[in-house]
Amino acid sequence: MRTTILDFLKKKREGKKIAVLTAYDFPFAQIVDEAGMDAILVGDSLAMVVQGIENTLPVTMDEMVYHTKMVSRAAKNSMVIADMPYLSYQISIEEAVRNAGRFVKEAGAQAVKIEGGREVEGIVKAMTCAEIPVMAHIGLTPQSLHKMGGYKVQGKTEDAAQRLIEDAKILEDAGAFSLILEAIPAEVAQRITSGLSIPTIGIGAGPHCDGQVLVLHDLLGLFDRFVPKFVKKYANLKEETSKAVRQYRDEVEKGTFPGKEHSF
Ligand code: KIV
User: Is residue 79 within 8 Å of residue 4, measured between CB atoms?
Assistant: First the structure.
């Protein structure tokens, strides 16, 4: 049975941790789904880890819909959450709801994610009114890269922490079903988590969040342009893949592939 937003809330009530991971295509989404992940986030991080772009800003709605379709085809049990790309929800509430609706109607997602605090309150309300579950995202919000002056840990002063705590409550009251906390001190994440009835999902926000999310390509060691402190590499697939493709090239050059067993 597919995980729903009710399962997210139940896990929070029961003190059970929620596991979320990104995926961007069919084969990886199938592996992530079969591993029993609560949700697969089709993150706009795909701009960096799949498309090879410097930051997440250029990825388009059509590209996000395309990748979400592939993930939805593979995900039988995990909830599919589509990340709304930069400028797909900031221009007007009408456009935001129309774009969020595309992820549900065209791409088969069960929820969407948007970045921002109190400034997106009206958008969360409108999407929720349109029956679209919303995961909110505060702290280091990569779409605010230029406003933040770089990818920096957020909420480090008491004033900044207080603002995050207020934003979290505003987003919960607006109808968000969960909240990503990215790159904030563990103690601030703990204060936010204990003050909410919706689950917090941390990435670089310490162990006290109700769940965790990572970028698949970071976890697998497929993206090494930079590795944030909060990433744990569970494999080194870049090295493994490189070894395999070099061996193939060598064998073709030497004429040892294909062998008899690969020939008709
Ligand atoms: O785009 C993404 O993958 C994300 C996660 C890192 C939370 O926003």
Answer: yes
